[in-house]
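Put briefly, the fold is written as integer tokens. The lines below illustrate.
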Amino acid sequence: RCVQETGGINAEYMGIIQIQRKLIKMKGTRVGLNKGFVVTRIAKRHHETRPSYRKGIKGKRVALIRSIVREAVGFAPYEKRIIELLRTGSLKDNKKAYKLAKQKLGTHLRGLKKREDLENYLRTQRKK
């Protein structure tokens, strides 16, 4: 195991000191391992949820509105072309459908997601 030396002090030793500082309570002194202002720590709340953690998650209302708009408006022309390619079922056309989606949407992941969404749509249509 490689131990890095910085300025004559062992880096691993410095890590141990930092861990010990966290464990030792501050005593209000200016110097030393347990230096610092004495404070009472606030108990952490478990599983704190912030609104920012929900960013990007589709809500019920938005999903309902999008499904209604999809029924009323239908698919874009490029989506119709992708659906036709997916209906054939061959691997070659599956890859071609992905390439078309990627070209129209701009990124790899968006292309994959669009192809998957349209495949799910076709599956639901076949079940009906």
User: Anything to note?
Assistant: Helices lie at 11-23, 60-73, 77-88, 91-105, 108-127. Strands lie at 5-6, 9-10. Confidence is low (pLDDT under 50) at residues 1-6. DSSP finds five helices and two strands in the chain.
